[in-house]
Amino acid sequence: EIVLTQSPATLSLSPGERATLSCRASQSVSNYLVWYQQKPGQAPRLLIYDASNRATGIPARFSGSGSGTDFTLTISSLEPEDFAVYYCQQRSNWPGTFGQGTKVEIK
Amino acid sequence: EVQLLESGGGLVQPGGSLRLSCAASGFTLSDCAMSWVRQAPGKGLEWVSVITTNGDTTYYADSVKGRFTISRDNSENTLYLQMNSLRAEDTAVYYCAKVVGAWYLGYFDNWGQGTLVTVSS
C-alpha cells in the first residue's frame, strides 16, 4: 500500500498570502495524484486531478504540480473561503490511499 | 446537477449489521463506477469499496473485506453498502462518491453529504 505523507500538518496564514502544501508518496505514483478540499461538516470537494488539472469550477488561484513522489498544491492568494483541510490521494495503485491532511488555518 | 444522497446510518451494537443506501440523480448511474469512502471522527479519508458500472466486479479495503458488500441497482439509481460484523473501528461518516477514470484507480468528482455510522454498546 502506498503511503502519502502531507506536510505541514497545519499551515497558519493570513488572507492574501500564498499557501504551499506538500504531498510525498512512499513510491512513485507517476502523475496520478489528486487533491481535495474539505470544510467542517462538509464532504470533500475535488480540486485537482492527475497532479495539475483543475476540476470544473475551481478558481485559477489553485494549482498543482509534481510527479513521481513529490507533489505540491499552491493557493496563490488565500481567500477567506480557502481555510479548510486539504487531502491528497493517489490513484496509481489499489487501494487509492489518502494523505492525513493539511489544515490551512487563519493566522 | 449531480446529487448523491446517503441514508441508513445510525447507532448499532458491535457485531451488528447496517445497510447504507445512496440515491443518485442528475447523471446516468449505469455509466459510472461508484465507491464508498469513510472518515472516522476527526480523522482522514479511507476508500472502503468500489463497484463497476454493471456491478460485476468489486474491490474492498482489507479492513472491511469479508464483512462489507457493495452492490447497486441501476434501475433504481441506487448504490448500497451492506455492513455486517460491525466493529467499533467502523465508526465513521460514510460517503458515497462517483468515480472518474479507471474504476478501481479512479478519483471522486462528486460526493454525497455522508451518513454517520456509530458502532457502540
List keywords for this structure.
heterodimer; A: 107 residues; mainly beta; six-stranded mixed sheet; four-stranded antiparallel sheet; 0% helix; B: 121 residues; 11 strands; globular
Description:
- The complex is a heterodimer of chains A (107) and B (121).
- Chain A has 107 residues and is mainly beta.
- In chain A, 0% of the residues lie in helices and 48% in strands.
- Chain A contains no helices and 10 strands.
- In chain A, the strands form 2 sheets. Chain A has a 6-stranded mixed sheet with strand order 2-10-9-4-5-6, with no helix packed on it. A 4-stranded antiparallel sheet of chain A has the order 1-3-8-7, with no helix packed on it.
- In chain A, a hairpin with a 6-residue loop joins β4 and β5.
- Chain B has 121 residues and is mainly β.
- Chain B has no helices and 11 strands.
- The mean pLDDT of chain B is 96.
The helix tally of chain B amounts to: 0
Biggest interface between protein chains, with counts per chain? A-B, 24 and 21 residues
Strand segment count of chain B: 11
Q: What string, H for helix and E for strand, traces the elements of chain A in order?
A: EEEEEEEEEE
Instruction: Report low-confidence residues of chain A grouped into runs of 5 or more.
Output: none
Strands of chain A, total number: 10
Short summary:
The complex is a heterodimer of chains A (107) and B (121). Chain A is mostly beta strands and 107 residues long.
